[in-house]
Amino acid sequence: MRLMDVQTSHAQHNTAQSSDPQSTSASSSARPVAQSLTQPMLMERARNQATFDSSLLTEIIVGGKEAVARQNDAFARIEKALGTDDPWKLPPRYGNMDREEMLLEGLRAARVTVNDGMDHGHKVFYQCNHEWALSNANPFGLTGLLFIPMLKLQCNPEQLAHWLPLAESGMIIGSYAQTELGHGSFVAGLQTTATLDKGSDEFVIHTPSIPAVKYWPGALGYASTHTIVIARMIIDGKDYGIHSFIMQIRSLEDFKPLPGIELGDMGLKMAYNGTDNGYAIFNHVRIPRTHLLSRYNTVSENGTYHADPLREKLLYGGMLGARSTIIRNSAFQLAQALTIATRYSAVRVQGQRSIPNEPAIMSYKLQHYRLLTLISKAYAILFASMSANATYQKLLEAQARGDHGSLPYVHMIMAGLKAWCTQTAADGAEDARKLCGGQGYLTMSGLPEIVASVAGCCTFEGENTVMWKQVSRYLMKGMAAPALPLDMAYVCSYMDTPLSTYDGDAFLNPAVLVQVFEHRAARLVTEAYELLCSEQGSAVTAENTHAVALQVAARAHIELYILRAFIAAVSAAPSALQPVLTNLLIISHLHTASSPLTPTSSSFTSFLTPSQLSAMRSLTNVLLARLLPDAVALTDAWNFSDASMGSVLGCRDGDVYKRIMVWTRQLPINVHARENGGVLREGWEEYIGPFLGEGGVRAKL
Amino acid sequence: MRLMDVQTSHAQHNTAQSSDPQSTSASSSARPVAQSLTQPMLMERARNQATFDSSLLTEIIVGGKEAVARQNDAFARIEKALGTDDPWKLPPRYGNMDREEMLLEGLRAARVTVNDGMDHGHKVFYQCNHEWALSNANPFGLTGLLFIPMLKLQCNPEQLAHWLPLAESGMIIGSYAQTELGHGSFVAGLQTTATLDKGSDEFVIHTPSIPAVKYWPGALGYASTHTIVIARMIIDGKDYGIHSFIMQIRSLEDFKPLPGIELGDMGLKMAYNGTDNGYAIFNHVRIPRTHLLSRYNTVSENGTYHADPLREKLLYGGMLGARSTIIRNSAFQLAQALTIATRYSAVRVQGQRSIPNEPAIMSYKLQHYRLLTLISKAYAILFASMSANATYQKLLEAQARGDHGSLPYVHMIMAGLKAWCTQTAADGAEDARKLCGGQGYLTMSGLPEIVASVAGCCTFEGENTVMWKQVSRYLMKGMAAPALPLDMAYVCSYMDTPLSTYDGDAFLNPAVLVQVFEHRAARLVTEAYELLCSEQGSAVTAENTHAVALQVAARAHIELYILRAFIAAVSAAPSALQPVLTNLLIISHLHTASSPLTPTSSSFTSFLTPSQLSAMRSLTNVLLARLLPDAVALTDAWNFSDASMGSVLGCRDGDVYKRIMVWTRQLPINVHARENGGVLREGWEEYIGPFLGEGGVRAKL
Fold first, then answer.
1. Which of A171, A189, A170, A167 is nearest to A179 (CA)?
2. Selected residue with higher pLDDT from B210 and A459
3. Of residues A461, A518, A543, A559, which has the active-site annotation?
4. What three-state secondary structure class fits B12?
5. CB spacing of B352 vs A599 below 8 angstroms
6. For residue A230, what are the β-bridge partners?
7. Is the domain of B555 the same as that of B690?
8. A330 and A241 share a domain?
9. Contact B143, B171 (CB under 8 A)
10. Which end of chain A has less neighbouring CB within 10 Å, N or C?
């Protein structure tokens, strides 16, 4: 039976229907020696060890029972519509797709998800797409993620009344044209111009040089009808700096670019290939003066400029929303990678010479050490993002009342979390990929796409190095101020805490961990400040010279925030979840403080005693043993459908090896070769055959 | 002029010829404000600052003046033949290629490179391909990289006389079928069987289960005529373990798989898509008994088995060659990524609010800190690989004389360097990618392919976690032995060194660094050994419990080896290069020891005093300033042709932004859209048009 199964003719696996798991033996993964459990049985056994109910945790992650149901329904509907609901059918994305086909597939998915939201009145796909990448991974997604929020932020009431219904009803598709070839993070360096022509009451949008070409905006290439273009506003020869303008870029009749506009795609990227990040070149394109987005700044017919004195603060506050989305989404993308790696680790067995039966690789220390500490980081990101988002909502309310006092604080938190969370998620996802060994290198493992997608978040919407700089500037400003900001109060008091008295189990107490993290942050912030003060040169030079120390201090401040947010989330959780969440909280921070495999620990080893560090490492081992049975449940809780991961390694049933063969046989290259007697025709005729022939005669063997 | 340039009609950029840089303005990258230097001028200025002659260094890297000339000639010839020699023409690999087209492109390149080697009698492409990936990145490459070395290692004289000429003359194409779906690194777990049928004097090769399917071997899918298959040899019902057999898998007449063999491709991978990593299923396939590779083991007609008592040692020794190649190549791939990032950093300018003129991003501390320390690591890998390879050659000579004494040592060094070098190169290449900001995310930056390619080396030919385990076992065995092995002698003596007396400039002395690294390794090895000894359970359990401490100790031992190899290489270098190489040597190891951004430093902060660490960090700043002018020359020295990198960011001339637009306009998706009035026809007709129409009527704006 086993033999028949593997030797099954390919024809039988050639369609979704015939690859129904029922039609093949359930014992496919049985091994001839010593291994009696199939992969699905190993999976079930690993799942059943959980000490808690993962669906309870799902409610916390997704935001309540109702949100879970809404999300499940939406995913089920769109997966049916996209034809990705059969886990034995090769997902379309692993077909033979080239650049153009990938974009068409993105358009197909975009239309289904956007329509589902409109038809069923939900915003499930406003922030993420059907595969949990950010929603701007498909061409219509940017409208909800950025275009509409920017309209709401920057339009005056008449403009909003005109544009918002058009965008929300899908009568126009929007993009946001800020980044240029020559400038990204440094917005003040943008060079596109918008020059007022008083005679015609129009702005003239123009690209004056190659570095000024708009390059990178999502959906700009071949999908959007309108864009918000960011340009230097010039009136009577005077440069008023960066402003936002709305402009139509394509005809709604035949979709051709409007006169004077060149549009195109940027080709393949590491990920996000379902959308058309594109370029635009403007050759003196005229738009009505009233297309300057005018909530906080106006230009009258005669060219008089007026701006709200708080304009920058208000715009900046509003723009933090995009960062908030990226932070939250990075938790989900890391969790997605970990769901795949955890499930695979539960069903792949591997021996070593000294062990008679082959255990699941999950049982190896370095495997579950990396998996479980990474899982704890995914939760840390999620809870930090929830906390930061709550603070952000309060800021928006306060700003609406005219109170901008907390803007610098919220801005700093969002910058720091953006850097910390995306970097942690990107590195963690890549580590999860490596934890799947060679199989993680397969595109159809789903992991390369997740890794590449979250890696993108490290450089876009503010490159992370720049983000850290914003945090360290806040800290140095705080140090120089007459009184420390509230969130930096620990800098005065850290010498008072009795750190040296703690040992052993004391480090299981979150309050003690807070003291440890405060102590470390206070040291690093103080050291960085002293280094700055010791410099004779300009502030800019001093900051550059000590950039490493500043970044490390910024990191320590943010990691303290993350610890506090985690503690708050655990306190607020139902009591049934408190034991497992507490274990995650502790292991996550013991790892940051004492793991010899993480860069952060070097700043702890300089003040914790060897005995304290050794206690922390022993406790880590204790917590690993406690958490190991929960590994599968802790990833199940994120509630990813098989189709949304598209991973041959990570489906819920654990039937990995059989699925690899079923999907592999469905690959177009193999289907085509089978139609040709098992030969890649062009390869044989054009290259291999002639090469073999060159030796003179074919070898006779 | 500038304006005309950017507004140039796309037609003009549509062919290689018309994108001749002479036909567009040289001032393309000029900025309207304050910036008068073009990108090529910035590049030239940065290159001219070098304090040494980079061509001298090239000779060390490549292996002498003659080798440089041979390499340059070979690359020039094949780039001409492949049509990639014009840096203004979009490289074929960024065309609209799907899975099948990528493989065909790989076959095309393979034929050109292999033929060039045969026609001109060189082995330039035996280890790397035309883009500096390992040569098994193309389908014929495995023959030289693995198939021929394995024949040489495992064939008896008659077998060698038969097979070697066929392989070397290109009359057969080989692959090496070891890895199965269920087992990779744990070779003893492989399940394919080779059962002797005495009646017919044949072995029957068979795949007994799904996990036993051969999966991953390069060139197995659609390119090789023969394979060396690794299988459990069964004679009279007795399992003799893993042996190697040569078998023909495809007809040389029509290339069809031979009866009983199913072959296919694995679909897209993160990289190596020019080759056909494939799968094979054998259904009782018969091969002559004489196809058992029989240098160290024989089976007679009546089924009598005989093996050389040293068989395993001899085979293992021979197989270390593949690791040696991977280690060396990882230096080149990291250097390739750094060449791109360094050149881009020299020509991208970016301001900040407080600086009037925009400086090249290279001048920012965190940029050149990361670049220069990574450059130092590329050299560290190269010198370590040279040293290890010399030791390996000595082992082979000794083994030929029957002396296997140094096998455990060489095996340990190769395992540790494989893990350290591939991980350092993969992380470093990814960091280089991030140093290019958003542009590094573009496929045509060349960086995603390099990152993915070197990342693959972390999991193949021995997963790195397994590699570290081999090092730590050697160390623990050494600790338990009556006398320490020579390379571990420092473990006894480290307490005698006057470490606490060093400060300030002392750390510029390589001999002092050796003491520091010895001290650290001795501590970590001793700690790990004590942890193991303190455990009551089995050795396997103890090893698993303390896997983290063991890995850290292994790393410290290998980093000491790397330091020593670097010192030896500097001593052997021409005196003109000694200053710059010494600076690299020192900064590389100060970084390992004291950077707060690297995980390694935590094991130093626990015994170096704050004042010593602070001295090391100040010296790092001093060395950065010394090395900054040499950054471009230090990457130029690796001698990569523009075509071999295929990077729009990294061409030698530095003309980045102009080239981005020239290549972008040549992308097939844009060419096709232009033919259709600037519209992606199918996207508009099938998805966007209907979507916009759904709102009822089209918007009238």
1. A189
2. B210
3. A461
4. helix
5. no
6. A244
7. no
8. no
9. no
10. N
- Cβ contact (<8 Å) for B184 and A437? yes
Interchain contact, B547 vs A366, CB within 8 Å: yes
Check CB contact under 8 Å for B351 and A188: yes
What is the per-residue pLDDT across B652-696, written as a single tens digit (0 to 9) for each? 999 999 999 999 999 999 999 999 999 999 999 999 999 887 654
In whole numbers, what is the pLDDT of chain B averaged over residues? Answer: 92
Same domain? For A166 and A261 the reply is: yes
Choose the closest CB to A695 out of B171, B262, B665: B171
Would you state the structure tokens that stand for residue B169, as one six-digit string?
């003359």
The backbone torsions φ and ψ at residue B160, rounded to the nearest 5 degrees and listed phi first, read: -60, -45
CB contact under 8 A, A667 and B99: yes
Closest CA to A604 of A531, A555, A564, A543: A555
Q: What share of chain B is helix, strand, coil (3-state, %, to 5)?
A: 60, 10, 30
Amino acid (one-letter) located at A149: P
Contacts of B171 (CB under 8 A, 6+ apart): A692, A695, A698, A699, B165
Residue A561 CA to residue A555 CA, distance in Å, equals 10
Query: On the CB side of A344, how many CA atoms lie within 13 Å of its CA?
Result: 29
Q: What integer pLDDT is reported at residue B495 of this predicted model?
A: 75
pLDDT reported for residue B30: 34
Same domain assignment for residues A289 and A339: no
Residue B336 sits in the same domain as residue B237: no
Beta bridge partners, A292, equal A245
pLDDT tens profile B616-655: 999 999 999 999 999 999 999 999 999 999 999 999 999 9
Identify the sign of the CA torsion B549, B555, B561, B564: negative
Structure confidence at residue B693 (pLDDT): 77
Pair (A146, A246) in one structural domain = yes
The three-class DSSP label of residue A298 is strand
Alpha helices, DSSP H only, in B401-459? 407-434, 447-459
Last residue of a domain, one of B585, B616, B634: B634
Residue B217 and residue B187 share a domain: yes
Reduce the DSSP state of residue A59 to 3 states and report it. helix
Distance between CA atoms of B224 and B167, rounded to whole angstroms? 11
* Domain with A345 in it: 314-634
Buried b (16+ CB within 10 A) or exposed e, B245-267: bbbbbbebeebebbebbbbbbbb
Give the DSSP letter string of A78-125: HHHHHT---TTSPPGGGSS--HHHHHHHHHHHHHHHHHHHHHHT--HH
A551 Cβ under 8 Å from any chain B Cβ: yes
Domain end, chosen from A294, A326, A341, is at: A294
Is-catalytic flag, B543?
A: no
Tokens of B567: 């010192």
**Is B121 labelled a binding residue?**
no
B352: chain A residues, CB-CB within 8 Å: 186, 540
**Residue A97: both structure tokens together:** 């797709």
Is B182 flagged in the annotation as binding?
Answer: no
| Region of poorest pLDDT, from A183-197, A637-651, B20-34, B200-214 | B20-34
ipTM of model over 0.90: yes
Dmax (CA) for chain B in angstroms is 90
Tokens standing for residue B232: 């459990």
Q: Which two tokens stand for residue A236?
A: 């009577």
Give the closest of B184, B348, B366 to A465, CB-based. Answer: B366
- β-strand pairing of A226-235 with A285-288: unpaired
Query: Do residue B305 and residue B325 come from a single domain?
Result: no
When pLDDT is averaged across residues B486-504 and rounded to a whole number, the result is 88
- The domain total for chain A is 2
What pTM does this model have?
0.94
B165 within domain boundaries:
no
Q: What is the CATH classification number for the domain harbouring B519?
A: 1.20.140.10
Interface of B with A in 37-66 (CB under 8 A): none
Q: Which residues of chain A have a pLDDT value below 70?
A: 1-35, 353-355, 694-701
